[in-house]
Amino acid sequence: MRRSIRSVVLVHGAWHGSWCWARVVPLLEQNGFVVRAVDLPSTGIDPPPGADLSGDAEAVRAAIEALPGEVLVCGHSYGGMVISHPTVGAHPRVAQLAYLCAFVPERGQSLFAMGDGKPAPWIGVDEQGMSLPDLAHAAALFFGDCDANTQQWAVGRLRRQPTTPFAEPVEDPAWRHIRSTYIVCTLDCVMPLELQRGLFAPRTSRAIELETSHSPFLSRPGPLALELAALGAA
User: Domain containing 127 — which CATH number?
Assistant: First the structure.
C-alpha cells in the first residue's frame, strides 16, 4: 500500500546550502506540502574540518522529526549519500527517496570509492583538507542553463566543505529498503549521463528525466517541483 506523504525534506549537494532550493520550496508549498530545506553542517561559512557524512545525516533526521506525517526526502548530488545513510533511511516516517542527479552508493561505498579514490580535477583541496570547486568554471559546471545573474548569485554562495564526508562509506544504503526515484538531468556537466542512466538510476525503483543542467532547482524549478509533487502524491 502506498503511503500518503505530507512533508518534503530537501538536501543540497556539496558546497551548496539550503539557499539553492529557494525557487522550489514555495512551489511545493503551493501543492500542499510542508517543506524543509536543510543546511548540512559540513558546509557553511566556516565548516569544521572533522565534519562527516554521519553528522550531515543527523541534521536531515532532525528535520524529518520536526515535520508532520510521511516524508519524501530528496537529495541532490552529494546529498544522495546523505539520504542513503541509515540515520535517514531507518526513520519510520520516510516513505520515499528522490535522487536528483545524485550519488547512489552500494553497500560499503563512499563517494570517493565510486571514482578513483580522489576528488575530480576541478575540485581544489587545501592543506586543511577543505575542498572547493574551481570558481572560474563553477558557473558552467553547475549552472550552465541558468541566466547570468543567477549564475553569479549562485557561484558567490558556494562554500568550502571538508573531504571527510566524501570518504565515509554507507554500510546499508536506504534505497535498498525504501521506494526511491532517480531524476536524471540530461544536460549535467558534473554527473556524467552514463553514470546517472547506467549505474545509479537502475539501483532505484524507477527513473525519470529532466532536460537540465546539474541545478534544475535554479534553472527549471517549476518542472522539478511538479515531479517532486507527483512523487509525493503517488
Answer: 3.40.50.1820
Q: Which of helix, strand or coil describes residue 67? A: coil
Residue 111 CA to residue 107 CA, distance in Å, equals 12
Residue 150 structural domain: 5-233
Record the pTM: 0.96
Give the residue carrying C-alpha cell 530528496.
74
Going through the chain in order, the beta strands assigned E by DSSP cover: 5-11, 34-38, 70-76, 94-100, 123-125, 130-133, 161-162, 180-185, 206-210
Number of structural domains found in the chain = 1
Q: Which of 63, 17, 4 is nearest to 218 (CA)?
A: 17
Contact yes or no for 98/74 (Cβ under 8 A): yes
Integer angstrom CA distances of residue 94 from 30, 68, 73, 222, 227: 21, 11, 7, 24, 18
CA distance 216 to 120: 22
Residues 6+ apart with CB under 8 A from 40: 11, 12, 17, 56, 59, 60, 79, 82
pLDDT of the chain, 234 residues: tens digit per residue: 345 789 999 999 999 999 999 999 999 999 999 999 999 999 977 777 678 999 999 999 999 999 999 999 999 999 999 999 999 988 999 999 999 999 999 999 999 998 776 778 889 998 888 999 999 999 999 999 999 999 999 999 999 999 999 999 999 999 999 999 999 999 999 999 999 999 999 999 999 999 999 999 999 999 999 999 999 876
